[in-house]
Amino acid sequence: MRKVNNQSSHNKVAFIHKNPQTQSTLNEKWKKESITELFELPFNDLIFKAHKVHIENFDPNTVQLSTLLSIKTGGCSEDCGYCPQSARFSTDVENEPMMQLSDVIEAAKAAKVSGATRFCMGAAWRSPKDKDLKKVTEMIVAVKSIGLESCATLGMLKDGQAAELKAAGLDYYNHNLDTAPELYGDIISTRTYQDRLDTLKRVREVDINVCCGGIIGLGETRQGRVGLIHQLSNMDKPPESVPINLLTQVEGTPLMGTQDLDHFEFIRTIAIARITMPKSYIRLSAGREMMDDGIQALAFFAGANSIFYGEELLTTENPSTLRDQELFKRLGLKTN
Fold first, then answer.
1. Helix/strand/coil percent split, the chain, to 5
2. Which of 211, 212, 225, 268 is catalytic?
3. What pLDDT band is residue 59 in, cutting at 50, 70 and 90?
C-alpha cells in the first residue's frame, strides 16, 4: 500500500493488527478466504450472484437518496491522508464556523424537494465538544420536523454523547472504518482503528442505526479490500448503511497522485459488499463524478441501492441532481 507522507512527519504505525481486543470483536461469519474467493470469480459470475442476493432482500429497481451537508468545514486536527479538511495539509478548503440553524433548515428543505429522504450532517472535528453537540441536536430536531431521516458524522463520540444524539431523534450515525485494519496506520496516525470501533459501540448501545463503510482506491491491494469487507461483514450486527467511497484525489492531500482504481474492481467491491451484507443498504458515495453512466448502472445491478444525492459531498463534487434524475429515468429506477 502507498505510504502517506506529509509535512508534519508523523510516525505511521499499522495499529490494529497488534490489538487482540479488536480482532476478538469479529465472529467470522465471513472468512477472508471466502471473501478472496468472491473477488477471484469471473466478473459476470460475481455480479450475477450479487444481483440474486439483492433481489432476495430488496426491490432491485429502487434507490434510496441521501443528501450530505458540511455543517462545519475545515480546520480538522486529524491527519487522514485523503481528507482536504485536515488543518495539516495545504488545500483550497478554508476553515469555516458551524452553520446557522436557519441555513441548515433551508438546505434540508431543498434536499427534500429534490427527492432526498435522508439528510446527513457532517462536521470536521476529531470529536464534538459538548457546546457544539447541543447545536447539532437542535439541527437534528429541525431536520426530523421537516420529515426527513437524520444522519450525522461528527468524529469520535465520548461517553454520553451518543445518548444525547439518540434523545434528539438521530436515525443514523456515520463513522467509517476507512480501510483494512492492517493498512490503517498508513492512512491515519492521529486515531486508532480501536477508537473507531469504540465510537461504533457507543452508537449501537443507544440503538442508533450505524452507517459505516470505507474508501477504496487508497493504493491498497485487493487483499486490502478483502480486509475492509471482512471487518464490516463480521460485525456482530452489520451496518444498516454501508457507504463505499472511491478515493477522490484532492490537490494538497498526501494521497494525491495515487494510481486510479479500475472501475471494474470498484464494482466487484460493491457486489461483494452486497453478498456479505445482504440486508444492508450499499451506498455509492464519493467518486461517482468520475464514473460514467454504464459503471453506475453496473453498480446498481451488483447491489448498490443508495446514493449520496446533490451537487456536493462535504467539499468535493458530486453528480448534479438533474444528471442523477435522468439516469434513474433511463434505467427505470424508482427512488425513496
1. 40, 15, 45
2. 211
3. very high
